[in-house]
Amino acid sequence: MSAESLERRTRNYLSSSVPQIQDHGGNFQIEDVDEESGEITVAIGGACSGCGIAPMTMRAIERRLPEEVDEVTRVTVRRTSGPRAAVMPDKTEEMETMEEYQDYEPPF
């Protein structure tokens, strides 16, 4: 399997299975593909840079991408920020203690 093919499969997965990133004004970029180890680095940005629940999305991508793309062994997701990014505080821990979010899973 070539790195290009692995990158394409990763991009296809993110585009089709995580459409809310783009639907909500965010974007993703595959920054690195290590063909031999199966490690992928993905950056999310745009509206994701300032989103308080982006960490939940990031964790879901890190957990689910290796389940969906066979050759992927490890995923690192990071937020990018531009000069105008106003990053909201991470709401993940607070949301995890709220009853209405106890069974929350991102919808992908």
Automatic annotation (TrEMBL):
Which branch of life, at top level?
Answer: Archaea
Protein name, entry field? NifU family protein
Organism, per UniProt? Salinirubellus salinus
What residue spans carry the Acidic residues bias annotation? Answer: 93-108
Q: Which Pfam families match?
A: NifU
Q: Which GO terms describe its molecular function?
A: iron ion binding; iron-sulfur cluster binding
Region (Disordered) residue spans = 1-26, 72-108
Recorded hits in InterPro entries, A to Z, give: FSCA_dom_sf (IPR034904), NIF_FeS_clus_asmbl_NifU_C (IPR001075)
Signal peptide positions on this chain = none
Alphabetized SUPFAM superfamilies for the sequence: Fe-S cluster assembly (FSCA) domain-like
Question: What Gene3D superfamilies has UniProt attached to this entry?
Answer: Fe-S cluster assembly (FSCA)
- Compositional bias segments (type: Basic and acidic residues): 1-10
Q: Which residues form the NIF system FeS cluster assembly NifU C-terminal domain?
A: 18-75
Q: Which GO biological process entries does UniProt record here? A: iron-sulfur cluster assembly
